[in-house]
Every structure is written in structure tokens, then in C-alpha cells.
Design brief:
37% helix, 215 residues, single chain, seven-stranded mixed sheet, alpha/beta, 7 strands
Length: 215
């Protein structure tokens, strides 16, 4: 099997993320106690801004291995992201190496982070890719929905690609849930049904998170 990214590296990444995120912004973390303390978990994170991944990596209670588009692995960022246990994925093909490494994270009881919308967008979980359902059904790992709110605010920015410095960013962890129907089926129909179930859960979590935070 393809080598699995380093848990120690992901823990280093978490510590760097903590320092950076609390240094630059004002994270408010809600529901972190809902994240299972051990065993495989998939974080499904809405994605409206560049800071969403580092923010979750920094405030999550466990080290996280995110699937990140290969375009982000440029220059010195390539060895850095690899060193902190992040996974490079080619979004335009069936990236078997990335799939194998991501499943390896879950098989070893780790935390896999996924942006199920595929690319940065409205951050409302409106369009899900089947990848999340595949990993959840194949591994049996529960999904924890994560809403990052406030990262897409436009006013007061010094740097276009980042939220305003020292602005509040809310990270809300939801209740873990199983995507599969309990049969372990991995047919296209089963994955489509799982994707539908996931979408309902993630959308409901986002609505709850917005009510909770007033964002």
C-alpha cells in the first residue's frame, strides 16, 4: 500500500495552524467535543475561503490530513504541506495514489479532511462530489460536518485572499453521522444515495451553525 502521511507531521501542522490562526484572526470554536476522541473520522468542511483548511487544521482537537488540490503544492509549499501530513490530489483525474493514501489515514484511525464541494465556492454545500461518500462508505468512518463562518467577509481586508486581520471566524463542529445505509454496498446507486444523505446532513448543520453564530 502507498505510504500513509505522517501523524506526527499533521500534529506539527496543527500546532503551526494554532499559532497562525490565533495570531492573525479571532477563531471561535464551537462543538469540538463532538469530534470522536479516537478512531477514523472524516471532516466535511464547507469551502468559501483560502483560510478554511488552515483554520480547521489549527483549531480541530485532533491532527487532520486534508486532501488539497495539487495546484497548491508549488515551490517551497510542496515539501512543507507534505511534511505536515497533507495529501496532494489531482482533481481532474482519478488520483489512485491520493485515494489510497486517504484510505490509509482512515485505516490507521486518523482524521481525513475533505472539502466536499471540490473547489472554493459559496460554502453552502450546494454541490457535492461523490468522493466524500466513497471514502465514508468504503472506510465506515463517521462524518463530522464542519462549518467555517466569517471567512468570506469582504470588508476590511488588507490582503484579498484572506479575511480581515483580527476578524472573528467561527468554526462549528457538528454531530458525527454515518453516510452508508449499513449494508456496506459501494455500487453507484449506493454512493448516490449516500451523497444525498450527506448533503441533507451538511446543509442542516450549516443552517444550525448560522443560527447559532448569527453569521
Amino acid at each position: 500500500m502507498t505510504d500513509v502521511p505522517s501523524v506526527r507531521g499533521a500534529e506539527v501542522g496543527r500546532r503551526i495552524g494554532v499559532g497562525l490562526m490565533y495570531g492573525l484572526f479571532k477563531p471561535r470554536v464551537l462543538g469540538a467535543w463532538r469530534v470522536p476522541a479516537a478512531g477514523p473520522v472524516i471532516f466535511a468542511v464547507n469551502h468559501s475561503h483560502n483560510v478554511d483548511g488552515p483554520m480547521v487544521m489549527g483549531v480541530a482537537p485532533r491532527p487532520t490530513h486534508f486532501l488539497i488540490k495539487k495546484e497548491a503544492f508549488v515551490g517551497p509549499l510542496d515539501p512543507f504541506l507534505t511534511g505536515i501530513g497533507q495529501l496532494k490530489v489531482d482533481r481532474h483525474s482519478t488520483d489512485r495514489t491520493a485515494i489510497s493514501r486517504a484510505l490509509g489515514v482512515l485505516e490507521q484511525g486518523g482524521v481525513l479532511g475533505i472539502f466536499p464541494e471540490g473547489t472554493r465556492g459559496e460554502g453552502d454545500f450546494a454541490a457535492l462530489r461523490a468522493g466524500l461518500a466513497y471514502f465514508a462508505v468504503r472506510s465506515g468512518a463517521p462524518i463530522v460536518p464542519v462549518a467555517v463562518l466569517g471567512s468570506s467577509e469582504r470588508s476590511g481586508r488588507l490582503i484579498k485572499a484572506l479575511p480581515p486581520l483580527r476578524s472573528r471566524v467561527d468554526v462549528v463542529f457538528g454531530d458525527p453521522f454515518d453516510a452508508g445505509d449499513g449494508t456496506g454496498r459501494r455500487t453507484r446507486k449506493a454512493l448516490d444515495e449516500a451523497t444525498e444523505r450527506i448533503q441533507k446532513q451538511l446543509t442542516a448543520h450549516l443552517e444550525n451553525a448560522r443560527r447559532l453564530t448569527g453569521r
